[in-house]
Amino acid sequence: LQGQSPVVEAMVDTSRVSGLDRITNDNDHIIIGCAVTHTQIVHEKSIIRHGTCLVESCGVIGGPQVRNVATLAGNVAHALPAGDGSIGLLALGGEIEVADASGSRWMALEDTFLGPGKSVIDHHRAMLTRLRFRPTEARAGSAFTRVMRPQGVALPMISMAARLQLDDSNTITAVRISLGPAGPVPYLAEPAMDVLMSGPASPEQFNKA
């Protein structure tokens, strides 16, 4: 409904559909309904503990009034390269569930974005219903940060989230680093991930990446 979008003749309100505003856990994943707000995510204990970068990224979107009504699903569906929530979820290996008349399917978040404001979701025939990610385990963690212009304008110069898994010898056994808006879509920094993978979790290794 923003900018040069055509006039909308009809809209479907899903805010009263039962279950879409809930955060659940099926043992393998933390599942976030499409109506869950950023504020809900910021205060959800399971995500604070097992998806820290998502809490941190959702916590800087807009102001309190925006976070009280805006959703992570909306942040993802808009497919903007500076979508902080999308960047946080991408680092966690997030997936989205898309439903249409033929049924529903899960897909990797990184396969969702086609370009600025464009995604594989057909907004006329399909709906993003849920999002999910695998919670971090022992010796794993995640974090999010961003760099803003000195004037404090709305969009960041760069946002980044990372998730690391270490073994008992402090070697990195799994890593995901997501970035935006450094390109047309949020993306994984695979060259930096390759540098870190199987190396020590040390300042020297991080500087190389």
Automatic annotation (TrEMBL):
SUPFAM superfamilies: CO dehydrogenase flavoprotein C-terminal domain-like, FAD-binding/transporter-associated domain-like. GO terms for molecular function: FAD binding; oxidoreductase activity. Pfam families: CO_deh_flav_C, FAD_binding_5. Keywords: FAD, Flavoprotein, Oxidoreductase. Residues 1-182 form the FAD-binding PCMH-type domain. The keyword Cell inner membrane does not apply. InterPro entries: CO_DH_flav_C (IPR005107), CO_DH_flav_C_dom_sf (IPR036683), Diverse_Substr_Oxidored (IPR051312), FAD-bd_PCMH (IPR016166), FAD-bd_PCMH-like_sf (IPR036318), FAD-bd_PCMH_sub2 (IPR016169), Mopterin_DH_FAD-bd (IPR002346). PANTHER family: XANTHINE DEHYDROGENASE SUBUNIT C-RELATED (PTHR42659). This is FAD-binding PCMH-type domain-containing protein. It comes from marine sediment metagenome.
